[in-house]
Amino acid sequence: MQRIGVFVCHCGSNIAATVDVSKVAEMALMEPGVAHAEDYQYMCSEAGQAKIAAAIQEKGLTGIVVCSCSPRMHEATFRKAAERAGLNPYMVEIANIREHCSWIHKDMEEATKKAVILMRAAVAKVNLNTPLQAGESRVTKRALVIGGGIAGIQTALDIADAGYEVDIVEKTPSIGGRMSQLDKTFPTLDCSACILTPKMVEASAHEKITIYTYSEVEKVSGFVGDFTVDIRRKARSVDMNKCTGCGVCQEKCPSKKAPSEFNRGLNTRSAIYTPFAQAIPNVPVIDREACIKFRTGKCGVCSKVCQAGAIDYEQKDEIITEKYGAIVVATGFDTIKLDRYDEYAYSQSKDVITSLELERVMNAAGPTHGHLERLSDGKAPKEIVFIQCVGSRCADDRGKPYCSKICCMYTAKHAMLIRDKYPDVNVTVFYIDVRTPGKNFDEFYRRAVEQYGVNYIKGQVGKVIPKPDGKLLVQGSDLLDNRQILKEADMVVLATAIEPNPDVRKIATMLTASIDTNNFLTEAHAKLRPVESPTAGIFLSGVCQGPKDIPETVAQAGAAAVKAIGLLAKDKLMTNPCTAHSDELLCNGCSSCENVCPYGAITYEDKEVNDHGIRETRRIAVVNNALCQGCGACTVACPSGAMDLQGFSNRQIIAEVDAICR
Amino acid sequence: MKYSYYPGCTLRTKAKALDAYARASAAALGIELVEIEDWQCCGGVYPLGSDEIATKLSSVRALNEAKVKGQSLVTMCSACHHVIKRVNDDMKNVEDIRVRANNYMELDEPYAGETEVLHFLEILRDRVGFDELKKKVTNPLTGKKIGAYYGCLLLRPGRLLNFDDPENPKIMEDFIRAIGAEPVIYPYRNECCGGYISLKEKEMSKNMCEKIMESAEGFGVEMLTTACPLCLYNLNKSTGVKLPVVYFTELLAEALGVKEEIKEEVQAL
Amino acid sequence: MPLEKKEFKPKIVAFCCNWCSYAGADLAGSSRLTYPADVKIIRVPCSCRVNPMFILRAFEKGADGVIMCGCHPGDCHYSTGNYYARRRMTLLFSMLDYIGVESGRTRVEWVSAAEGVKFSETMNSFVEKIYSLGENVRLGDLRCKN
Amino acid sequence: MNPGKKQAEMIREISGVNPLKCMKCGKCSATCPSYNEMDIKPHQFVSYVVNEDIESLINSKSLWKCLSCFACVERCPRDVKPGKLIDAARQMVVRKKGQDYLKADEIPELLDPELPQQLLVSAFRRYRR
Q1: Chain B residues touching A341 at Cβ < 8 A
Q2: What is the pTM of this model?
Q3: Which residues from chain A sit within 8 angstroms of residue B187, using beta carbons?
Q4: What is the dihedral sign for C-alpha D38, D41, D44, D49?
Q5: What's the domain range around C61?
Q6: Domain ranges of chain D
Q7: Most buried by CB count within 10 Å: which residue of C65, D102, D123, D129?
Q8: Confidence at residue B262, expressed as pLDDT on a 0 to 100 scale
Q9: Would the CB atoms of A396 and D41 count as touching at under 8 Å?
Q10: Using the beta-carbon criterion (under 8 Å), do D30 and A460 form an inter-chain contact?
């Protein structure tokens, strides 16, 4: 039997004016288990807390009920007070007789009656409380960043600068990501490479950062603070320790017909290659599907010309296993495939290109060396039409239901850059809405219109019609003029919707991080926890969480880093003791609980149990307390009543129900 | 290979050639087209109203007959194909239409979209296979630059008809390649010829067809081919550029070397 | 002696999730938005912690109405808890309906932490409904009643 | 209920289209091959239904210029299907007695020897009850 102390707070007159507090205390003494009851002016004050401590010690109390304000206000205060007096803090419960009683009722008798009932419910619950211990788990002081674009680089730098080890795993042969493919950046028009490459160098030179390029995460196990990750380092066929990055192999490689990923397939590269000149690491890889040596067994030119003897045709994939305390996902995006939007003739004309392809065309290191020219015949265009929202804001399965967010701004950027460099080229933009929420963004767009004379037409394009003479006929709407327009153009640029990197599904599954219907990773709270995944220890950086531009990505990357640092800074993790646990004698291993758990906290073990003298091995649900957040979904899903939630057990809640309905 | 065949009204009158060449080619390919009994006209256009039932019943009747025989239903005309495929989709997926149509029909067993509806081109692609077809061609149409004219009804709405990519189809181009000719892609191949508008607004459809012809000629098309009698009629009315327009079955018959055999028969039609 | 007709004072149990609706109830309180004292709130971590058994138990013990409040769909602190709760309650309520417990005696409402007004309005309308339905006899444990 | 509201509801019912899904991008009007012949443009159909001004829609030339080519249906990014709306308005007209757009006595002069049956049947179904 518990020895419960009930403490009724006046809260000045906040409670006492409507509730007869001494009556509540008096009634409390009639409740089973109650050994002490008193009322006081301000229970939360030093003096009030001292009264509780004194009663615990003097009367040997095993449980406390404080009738006061909302537990959201002072539950923590009273639990700490109890703990200081030597009582387990989870033996304290609050009866909310202020917000839920005195403040909303006027009649003293009625309010007092209700306060008594709320007190009884709390007493009934405490009678069934058990001391709970917050668990502890260790924290490996190392972070993993998946993805080596600007998001991943920034997150890694911030974590490393705080003094923690960070590994970046990047799928392609170099870090840099999408940003390395961009020519200029809005709204300042500075060169993308000029601001990105120093960060890439900094990351690669940082003593706390290890970069695994041409590598992929293969397997993840463990939980917050203690993840174990297998990383597959794909065979580069080049010894990273020997290669000097001289580039002779790439020059001499006779196979030069593989489409260049970096230039979006607009030109070709050699079979042994680095994606771009500033690649980090500056060590090439052999594309074994394109390599003549790997296809036919004959060639070996790269090996012959390599002074350093770095070429290794025998190299094999290697799996490394590492432990991490925190994992940041920064897997980024790609543009959607346009094969279901052929009304824009993307597959029918070389002069219809995506905006990302235009970035490469405008870039000095791109397929046209930065000259704006038609990819079909190399001629300089005179009329360029941009089409917005290609595949974005689409209700059917052809495109994406969301706004891709970055297109309005980069199109204004492209239009402006073209008009600036080639004043004789006319630029027309077909738009549905121009969306420019961001610092200096609308000003930027207006500059494109007002200073650079870019022609913005409100209305979507219905069809792009290639003409026999090589020009393109753009058939679009001018909604403000109520006209159908037929505009002749030399080039058409499609603001193609972006989508999360297709690999993210696989990665999210490994991490048990949830993902939405568009394959964006879900944040723990849309407003208040935007860079955390609902799965503890997993953080989100960049476009993997939702469309965003570079400044936003960098800001979020920093935020994700801070959250990861906050985790790594702890030596031990205290876990919420109000977690689920299953009664192994009742559990029948049916998996119902596992299916509803949003945190992947439930696993199954074959365990030997002693069921009334019968020893047998059974499949039993086991809750990982480090992962469980205590929502209780599993407790209701459990058909056998084996699963229960500590602190909010079935018996406790039923006791409250009974007390209220008595 | 045995199929139920729905010729449709026009193939019995103005487009007998489309039908005759199809039958001859089918025979040459070992395909048996069994005309369903007592078929009625599909109505030419699919009734869009979600409350239209009576106008869909002739299609349901044909579909059910094929179902009873356990055969797929083959059409030759784009319009029949469009109407019957969409009605079939309604019968399969729209409960209200299914229930009400079955109430009218009083069939032994309710019809619920069980029949597979195929256009003859789909048979050539999916059942015969264009590679196989190529092997059976005895008289390849080498050197001929042929433009496919799809029009609207074969392709749209793409999700329902599931015939080919509605914006960049290739089935007819692949067909043209299989019979030894050179397909020419031009952008207006899936734009409307005007359809039924040509009855009252002759100018409108003329303008549209001129655009199609001009674009085709510009890309080097020497001859257009279509599956639709109405498209053929409208295109032939074009007053500007004039390219010959032929049914795809005529090209097929020619390539398979059976055109001559039935030449007299066709001319007598 | 004629039996004195007792004035009907309903017993109403409200299950509120800790993150949204309990906070909404707190806001109703701090905004001094009144609702009848017949409502007693039980705090649960999430609406998905509410076992249909609890509701049956309440009716068995003489409750006249039970209302469950959670975060708005999509706003659940635990991401998906309220979806489970919604499905479970739909099932339970259809069963209660079958047994003959009037559908008005149970309700599910989504109340955010900012919706003090909605909380009080919801409780007012629910209590009014219970008054109109009168005492719940169908599931009550009759053995201990006089 | 005002007559416009009732008619608008009928159009929604016949067409099965929810005009509120429209985001006013104008792709239908950019696509329509009959655009220049129409007095009410395809992208406006939606607003007429939303604003419950069905009278204007019924009396418009556009009703008889739509080809039912489904290009707008195919390309609409919001799954609104303006072509179905205009067809529903057309249905409302031809279902009324004596409102046929194609009168029996004008048919003979429209015919020519090549004219396929298909054209007549189609026109009958679109223009007449």
Answers
A1: 167
A2: 0.81
A3: 345, 348, 463, 465-466
A4: positive
A5: 12-144
A6: 3-96, 100-129
A7: C65
A8: 87
A9: no
A10: yes
- Residue C99 belongs to domain with CATH number: 3.40.50
Number of structural domains (chain C) is: 1
Q: What is the mean pLDDT of chain A?
A: 95
B171-178 vs B248-255: helix axis angle to the nearest 10?
30
Is A514 an 8 Å CB contact of chain C? yes
Quick one: B15 and B114 in the same domain?
A: yes
State the smallest CA–CA distance between residue A289 and chain B in angstroms.
28
User: Among B120, B152, B170, where does a domain finish?
Assistant: B120
- Below-50 pLDDT ranges, chain D: none
> How many angstroms separate the CA of residue A436 from the nearest CA in chain D?
18
CATH number assigned to the domain covering D3-96 = 1.10.1060.10
**Domain A142-174+205-225+319-331+504-568, what fold?**
FAD/NAD(P)-binding domain (3.50.50)
Same CATH fold assignment for domains A142-174+205-225+319-331+504-568 and A334-499 = yes
Q: How many CB pairs under 8 A join A and B?
A: 29
* Interface residue D33 vs chain B (CB under 8 A): yes
Tell me, yes or no, if B203 comes closer than 8 A to chain A by beta carbon: no
C125 touches chain A (CB under 8 A): no
Give the residue from A69, A627, A636 with the most C CB atoms within 10 Å of its CB, the best one to mutate. Answer: A636
Q: How far apart are CA A229 and CA A144, in angstroms?
A: 9
- CB B147 within 8 Å of CB B183: yes
List subunits contacting chain A, requiring 3 or more Cβ pairs under 8 Å: B, C, D
Angle (CA) A609 A611 A617, round 5°: 35
Asked whether residue B133 is assigned to any structural domain, the reply reads no
The CATH number linked to B231 is: 3.40.50.1860
From the list B159, B191, B218, which residue is nearest A468 (CB)?
B218
Query: Is the Cβ of A5 closer than 8 Å to some Cβ of chain D?
Result: no
pLDDT in tens, chain B (269 residues): 899 999 999 998 999 999 999 999 999 999 999 999 989 999 999 999 888 899 999 999 999 999 999 999 999 999 999 999 999 999 999 999 999 999 999 899 999 999 999 999 999 999 999 999 999 999 999 999 999 999 999 999 999 999 999 999 999 999 999 999 999 999 999 999 999 999 999 999 999 999 999 999 999 999 999 999 999 999 999 888 899 999 999 999 999 999 988 888 887 77
Instruction: Find the domain containing B99 and state its range.
Output: 2-120
Q: How far apart are CA B84 and CA B117, in angstroms?
A: 7
Collapsing DSSP states into helix, strand and coil, what is residue B225?
strand
Amino acid in position C146 = N
- Counting the structural domains of chain B, the total is 2
Show residues of chain B in contact with D115, CB under 8 Å.
Answer: 14, 199, 233
A396 touches chain D (CB under 8 A): yes
> How far away is chain D from the Cα of A456, in angstroms, using its nearest Cα?
14
Query: B: neighbours with 3+ CB pairs under 8 Å?
Result: A, D
CATH number, span A334-499: 3.50.50.60
Report CA A39 to chain centroid distance, whole Å: 49
CA distances to A132, A141, A230, C77 from A225, in Å? 22, 8, 16, 22
Q: Which of B181, B185, B201, B194 is nearest to B234 (CA)?
A: B194
Q: Which fold has domain A576-646?
A: Alpha-Beta Plaits (3.30.70)
Q: Does domain A4-126 have CATH number 1.10.10?
A: no
Structure tokens at A182: 């961009």
Query: Stretch A241-261: mean pLDDT, rounded?
Result: 96
Report the side by side order of strands in the sheet with A4-9. A34-40, A4-9, A63-68, A92-96
